[in-house]
TrEMBL record:
Name of one Pfam family that matches: ABC_tran
Keyword flag Oxidoreductase: no
Domain of life (superkingdom): Archaea
UniProt-recorded Gene Ontology molecular function terms: ATP binding; ATP hydrolysis activity
UniProt protein name: ABC transporter related
Keywords: ATP-binding, Nucleotide-binding, Transport
Organism encoding this protein: Halomicrobium mukohataei (strain ATCC 700874 / DSM 12286 / JCM 9738 / NCIMB 13541) (Haloarcula mukohataei)
Residues covered by the ABC transporter domain: 7-236
PROSITE patterns: ABC_TRANSPORTER_2 (PS50893)
Record flagged with keyword Chloroplast: no
Length: 253
């Protein structure tokens, strides 16, 4: 029996006027993996994620996510989760109301997923703040709420854009653990981040985008092994070699 990939794209491209944001992308992401999606600023990562989540129409090519064509937004939202760079939260709601609202959008009764949602909040240290309004939340509290909102309905595929942004070290560690647990429970995690040690630690596979093109793909160890260095190479070395610009300053925290 062949298991369908979680994400498959065929010649996926996006142009904005004379700018080619994503060019002829053929990507296959197996089910149940953590997939690190890397690339310099402006490489096309966000645009790719927007196409895969049905928010932006491709100029050419097709994509299937969790078995659904990416232009079938109605079916897609039930099967995916998205944590974008700028989390969409309603300032006037409490954290709990925000999570209930997100469940409603997917026509999932919140009571059905409350144990999972509130358990995630507790793990992230958000439990005691859930009845406060979002407009009084810190950046980290917003990020935690947006993460729970993205995964509370147990999606088949979740897209995370810089998920540890603004999180303190303890919460960031918990979030990394949660990502690994999600994948172990068969949720495919599509993770875009500039924090390469995190990718090296938790990603099963990595794709590197450069100028809208996929320039490398495989397990992190394979990418690192492809780089020649005098000492031991790491994913940052591989990234810099593959994207050909040693001046890109990348976080190494
Ligand atoms: N709505 C838009 N209109 C015009 N150009 C756009 C638009 N969205 C993205 N672009 C362009 O497409 C290219 C890819 O941008 P994108 O945001 O996908 O990159 P990224 O890899 O996510 O970058 P970063 O790491 O900085 O977030 C850039 O040249 C960007 O200026």
């Amino acid at each position: 029996m062949t298991v369908s990939p979680a994400i498959a794209t065929d010649g996926l491209s996006k142009r904005y006027g004379s700018t080619t944001a994503v060019a002829d992308l053929d990507l296959t992401v197996p089910s149940g993996v953590v997939y690190g999606f890397l690339g310099p600023n402006g490489a096309g990562k966000t645009t790719t994620m927007r196409m895969l989540t049905g928010l932006v129409e491709p100029s050419e090519g097709t994509a299937t996510v969790a078995g659904v064509p990416s232009d079938d937004r109605r079916q897609l939202v039930d099967r995916i989760g998205l944590l974008p760079e700028e989390p969409p939260l309603y300032e006037e709601l409490t954290g709990r109301e925000q999570l209930e609202f997100a469940a409603d959008l997917r026509r999932v009764p919140f009571e059905q997923i409350a144990d999972r949602a509130l358990g995630l909040c507790d793990r992230l240290g958000l439990g005691e703040d859930l009845d406060r309004r979002v407009d009084g939340y810190s950046k980290g509290m917003r990020q935690k709420t947006a993460f729970v909102q993205a995964v509370q309905h147990d999606p088949s595929v979740v897209f995370l854009d810089e998920p540890t942004s603004g999180l303190d070290p303890r919460a960031a560690k918990t979030l990394r653990e949660l990502i690994v647990e999600l994948a172990a429970d068969d949720t495919t995690v599509f993770l875009s981040t500039h924090i390469l040690p995190v990718v090296e630690e938790i990603a099963d596979r990595v794709g590197v985008l450069h100028d809208g093109r996929l320039v490398a793909e495989g397990p992190p160890g394979e990418l690192i092994g492809s780089v020649e260095t005098e000492g031991g190479a790491d994913l940052e070395d591989a990234f810099l070699a593959l994207t050909g610009d040693a001046s890109e300053a990348y976080a190494t925290e």
